[in-house]
Write a structure and sequence with these properties.
Strand 2, helix 2 and strand 3 form a beta-alpha-beta unit. This protein is globular. The chain contains four helices and seven strands, in the order βαβαβαβαβββ. The C terminus is likely disordered.
Length: about 160
């Protein structure tokens, strides 16, 4: 059976969440070298146990809105695998589960930092000038808020 991702080097943020974890398993089964980034150390260790501590996987604890941590994650991935072929920006947050009108500006800014700034940081550091090949970039995060007086959810896609 042909492995479509055989030898491709892929970085996945949000690797410890359900979408990131499932994506990591699929990409591993198709032969990709993986850099898996998550902010929860316990969940990252669980993922490591589940996937195995293979040479084709690099596990890194990092917060997506931390510029130094993201720069180091990209650098570490390139150092280990030689290049980076794709980045999957899956890490994101909905913030607190409460109506939008009850959000403070600090809570709203945290959502923006994780979902927008975090993706921007990945694009800033994962590019051909930093040793990445013809990189593919996929952003997969979604935010929704409940708004009083509206029948539907307000959604922002990044």
């Amino acid at each position: 059976m042909e492995m479509r991702l055989d030898g491709k080097n892929v970085l996945i943020t949000g690797a410890t969440g359900s979408i990131g974890r499932t994506t990591a398993k699929l990409f591993q089964s198709n032969g990709a070298n993986l850099t898996l980034v998550g902010r929860d150390k316990v969940k990252l260790e669980s993922l490591k146990t589940e996937l195995g501590a293979e040479d084709s996987i690099l596990f890194l604890e990092a917060e997506s809105r931390d510029e130094a941590a993201i720069a180091l994650a990209i650098e570490s991935s390139i150092k280990k695998f030689g290049t980076l072929d794709a980045v999957l920006a899956i890490g994101g947050t909905e913030g607190l589960s409460k109506p939008l009108t009850q959000y403070t500006i600090e809570q709203f800014n945290e959502v923006l930092e994780v979902n927008v700034t975090g993706v921007w940081l990945l694009m800033k550091y994962a590019n051909p000038s930093n040793g990445c090949s013809r990189i593919r970039f996929i952003c997969c995060n979604f935010v929704r808020w409940r708004c009083s007086g509206f029948r539907r959810l307000v959604s922002i896609f990044c």
